[in-house]
C-alpha cells in the first residue's frame, strides 16, 4: 500500500495560496469535522511556498498547551521570555521576535487546530493578522468553542473563513486509486465513499480494515471490495470517540435508527421518548431530513450504524427488528418500500409467519436489482414452504448471481410439481436461461424450441417463443429470431413481458442493422411498458439496455450513453450487486470515454468492467475487447494483446451477437502493434462478414477503422460484374444512405477526402467530428490532413499543427496509426534544439547552452522546420505538442 496521497482540494489550495500571495488579504481559516483533511490541506499548501520568499512559522495547538501562556506558539517563539513586561508588552515582544526571525521576508503564520490556542496566543494571532506584511492561515474543528480573538478574525473581516466539505465521489475514487496503486471498481468506490461519508481519515481506516481482513481483491488491475467489513480497533476507537457515552434512552434511539433508517420521525417518537430523540440530534448522532412531505431520521454518519449493529447483542437485535416491524405494520405500510422492510425485519427477528410476505418482498428486491437481498428472501420463502413459485424465483435470481449450477438444483427439485402450462412454460424458460447464458449450452435453443410444442396455451407458448427468439439472436440466427419475435408481437394472448422481450430482440437487431430510428422507437415502447413487466421479468431491463446501448454506441451518441449510465437502473444495479447490469454499463461508459479521448478513464473503466464480469461469461469477452480498444488507443500493444487473449478465453459462444465488437478490437490490437497489413486483412474480412450478416450499423464503424488507418482505397466486398471490387470509400458512400444518423455520412466524407487526397476536406470533416463531441476522430482527421499538407510543403501546415495541438491538448495519452503519420523522425540533437527554441531561447543562448556555434544551431533549426512542415519558431510549440506532447510518445 502506498503513502496516503493528497488528492483533490484544488479550489481550497488555490484559496490558501491566494491568501498568502494577495497583499490585500490577511489570511484564511478552514473549518471542518475531525478527519476531513484540514491539517493535510494546510501542510500541502505550505509546502508549495518558497522559503526564500516567505518566513513560514507552523504551530500545532493542543489540549496540553491550552492552559499555558503562549503555549500554543511555543514552537516558534524564543525560549527565553523577557521578565517584567505587561501583557501588551509581551504581545509586542512576540511580534518583534517573529519579525526578526523573518529577516525582512513576509511572515506566514500557520496554526493547526486554532480552537485549542491559549488566550495570549490567540491574542497574538489576532494582532499579527492586523500587522502589515503578515498572513495568518489555520484550521478549526467544527463545533468547538473558539477563543474570542480567533472568532474576531473573520467577524472583523481580517481573514476568510472557509468550510471544508467531505470529499466527493470522484475525489474519493482518485484517493483510493492513489493509495492502492490501481483503480477501484465503481461499485466498491461508491460503497466506500458512502460509508466513509467522504471523510479521508475514516476512508483510510476502512481501507486498512478491508486490506487487513483480506476483503480487497485485485482482478485485471482493478480493486474490488467484497463489502464485508472487519471493525479494526482503530476504526472502532474513532467511532467511539465521536459517539461518546450514551444514556439508555439515547442508545435505544440510535439503535432503532441504525436498524431501521430511514425511519419516520413520528414513528420514532412513538417508540421512544421524544426528549431522547432531541438529545441524539443535538449531539450530532442522528439527523432529521425532510423528503417531500415526509420527515425522516437517519444516522449522522453511516459508520455509526456499523458499530451499533455489530455491538448489539443478538437477543436485543431480534427484539429491535420485531419492534420496527410492529411500528410499520401498525402505521399501515403506506410507503412503497414498507413491504420489503417489514419482511426483512420479520425474517431477522424470527417472527415471520407468512411465506407469501417473503415471496412478495423477494420480488420487490429483485425489481430493485438487489441480488443478495432478493436471494436471501427467496430462499427463506422456499424454506417456509413457498412451493414452486419460490423455487422459480430463487433459481432466476441465482442465475443473475452467477450461480447457475445451484439454480439448476433448485429447478430440478420442483420438476415434478409442474401441473399446468403456466408452470411448465416458466420452468422451461428459467431453465433455458440458466443452461444457455449461465452454462453456455448452445443446444438449449433446440431443446426449448422442441419442448414449446408441448404447450397448448397461446400465452404460455408466446413466453417460450420470446425467449427462444432472443437466444437465437444471441447466437446469430437472426432471421429466425426476427420471425419468432414478430410472431410473439402478433399474438394477442402474449403477456406484456413476453411482447416486450420480443420487442427488445427486434430493437437490438435493428440497431445492429443501422436502423437507429426504428430501434429507438421500439426501446421507448419497452420502457413505457416497464410498470407492466417489471414484477414479472425484472431482468428484461438488461435486454433493453443491450439494445439501447448497441444503438447509441453505433450511432456515436455519447450524450445518450451518458444518460443511461446515469439513470436509476445504474444506481440500483450498482447498489444491489447486479453485476451483469453494472458490468455492461461500465463497458458502455468506457466506450464513450474512449471516443472522447479520455484514454486514462477508458482504460480504468474497462478494467473495472472486466473485474465485475470476471465470474460471468455473458459480457466478459465484450469487457475485455473494450479493454483492448482502450489500450490500443494509447499505443500499448502488449496490454491490448493481453486483453484480446482474455476476450477470446472468456467469450461465450452463445453470445455470438457480440462478435463485431471483439473482431473490431482484434484489428485495433494488430494496428497498435504496428502490423497495419494484418489489421487491414482482419478488418476487411470482418466487413465482408458483417455485410453478409446484414449488420450495416457495425459495418460502418469497421470500414471507418480502415479509413483511420489510411486504407480508404482498400478493396472490400464481392467481385463486381466488371471484375473489380468496391473500395472502402465506395462502400461507405453506399452505407451512408442506408444507416440512420449524422455519423455515417461524415465517415463517408472522410473516406472520400482521403481517396481524393484533399486536406481541406479532411479539415472540414475534423471540424464536424469535433462538433459531434468526437475529438479522437477529429484529431486523426486533422493529422491525415497535416500529413498531406506536409507532403506537399503547403503553407497551411502551420495552422493544421495548431489545430491538432489544440485537439490533443483536450485528450489523454493517444497513440494511433493516424497520429503516427505526423510524427517525424528528429535526431536527439534536433529534439534538444527544437525544445529550447519552442521555450523562447534565442539561437545564441541555445548555442551557449549546448556548446555549439550559432550557425550549427540555425542549420539544425532549418532541418527541424522542414521535417515539421512549419515556417518558423512561432509554430514550433504547437507542432511539437502535436507530435509528442499529448500523444504519450516522444519523436523517434
Task: Give a structural overview.
By secondary structure, the chain is an alpha/beta fold. Among the domains are: 10-163, 3-Layer(aba) Sandwich (Rossmann fold), CATH 3.40.50; 169-230, no CATH class; 438-555, no CATH class; 566-674; 770-885, Orthogonal Bundle (Arc Repressor Mutant, subunit A), CATH 1.10.10.10. The protein has 46 helices and twelve strands. A five-stranded parallel beta sheet has the order 2-3-4-1-5, with helices on both faces. A three-stranded antiparallel beta sheet has the order 8-10-9. The chain has a two-stranded antiparallel sheet with strand order 6-7.
Helix tally? 46
**Uncertain spans, ≥5 residues at pLDDT below 50?**
885-892
Count the beta strands: 12
- In the sheet with the most strands, the strands line up as 2-3-4-1-5
What's the main sheet like?
5 strands, parallel
In whole angstroms, how far apart are the ends? Answer: 36 Å
Could you please say which CATH topology of the domain at 10-163 applies here? Rossmann fold
* CATH architecture type of the domain at 10-163: 3-Layer(aba) Sandwich
> How much strand content do the residues show?
5-15%
The CATH H-level homologous superfamily of the domain at 10-163: P-loop containing nucleotide triphosphate hydrolases
Report helical residue fraction: 55-70%
Alpha-carbon Rg, integer: 33 Å
Structural class: alpha/beta
User: For this structure, what is the CATH class of the domain at 10-163?
Assistant: Alpha Beta
Average of pLDDT: 88
GO molecular function: adenylate cyclase activity; ATP binding; DNA binding
Protein name: ATP-, maltotriose-and DNA-dependent transcriptional regulator MalT
InterPro entries: AAA_16 (IPR041664), P-loop_NTPase (IPR027417), Sig_transdc_resp-reg_C-effctor (IPR016032), Tscrpt_reg_LuxR_C (IPR000792), WH-like_DNA-bd_sf (IPR036388)
Keywords: ATP-binding, Nucleotide-binding
